[in-house]
Design brief:
90 residues, mainly alpha, 2 domains
Length: 90
Amino acid sequence: MADADIRAMKSWLGFGVAALLSLSMLAVAVYLWMSLGDVDMTPAGYLALVGGGLATLGLGVGLMALVFYSNRSGFDDRAAAPPLERRDPP
């Protein structure tokens, strides 16, 4: 097998594992939600639930955007350099 084939196979395997884990977590979340039974939640509770989920998602997206920006801007180059090259010039 060529290296490209192995990389493609690993990519598909990683995607499959991530999809399986996501579906498993979704199934557990749905089961737990349904097992709560008749729990009364006010509209304020639903608003807090949705708002907290959106805030968490926004925070994750924002932090990942900063990671990609930092990587593409070259800010990470010094951190990846060997220890002797990390010193500031005199």
